[in-house]
Design a protein that fits this description.
Structural class: alpha+beta
Strand order of the largest sheet: 3-2-1-4
Shape: globular
Number of strands: 4
Helix content: 40-55%
Number of domains: 1
Number of helices: 7
Distance between the termini: 42 Å
Radius of gyration: 15 Å
Length: 146
């Protein structure tokens, strides 16, 4: 119970917004191509219109909300879902983060992919950095998707 009370009203509002975004994003990823999902997520969060500084949450609060929403989403989540939600939420609150997608072969030789966010050269979602380092990043393509 104490843990629930340790979060501010702003954090709970962020969490609810992120949970809504996680459900919409997860469903959209099952139905739509990535460029349309990216536009939908940004529209859902109104990411193109940053909040005024007095209403902005910290980057840490935005990341917490996206990660917590991913854990609670009734549709489940993927690394891509979480990264897209976190990126849009961060952008709405005045922060920029780069979406990165990397690929590798696992121990059985199967192809795997992973999505994460980087901010100022640091992995902020989808880490730790040591795990992400095992993936060969694809070229940045957000400008092509948007």
């Amino acid at each position: 119970m104490k843990r629930l009370r340790s979060h501010s009203t702003r954090e709970w509002v962020l969490f609810i917004h992120a949970l809504y975004g996680a459900v919409v994003t997860r469903a959209a990823l099952r139905l739509l191509p990535l460029p349309r999902v990216l536009r939908l997520v940004r529209r859902c969060f109104r990411a193109e219109f940053p909040l005024p500084p007095a209403r902005q949450a910290s980057a840490g609060q935005a990341v917490w909300a996206a990660l917590a929403a991913g854990r609670c989403s009734p549709l489940g989540t993927t690394c891509l879902t979480t990264a897209l939600v976190a990126q849009a939420l961060l952008q709405r609150h005045g922060y920029q983060a780069k979406l990165r997608i990397g690929v590798r072969r696992d121990l059985n030789g199967a192809f795997t992919a992973h999505a994460w966010l980087e901010r100022e050269g640091e992995v902020i979602v989808g880490g730790p950095a040591e795990m992400v380092a095992g993936f060969a990043p694809l070229p940045e393509m957000e400008h092509l998707i948007a």
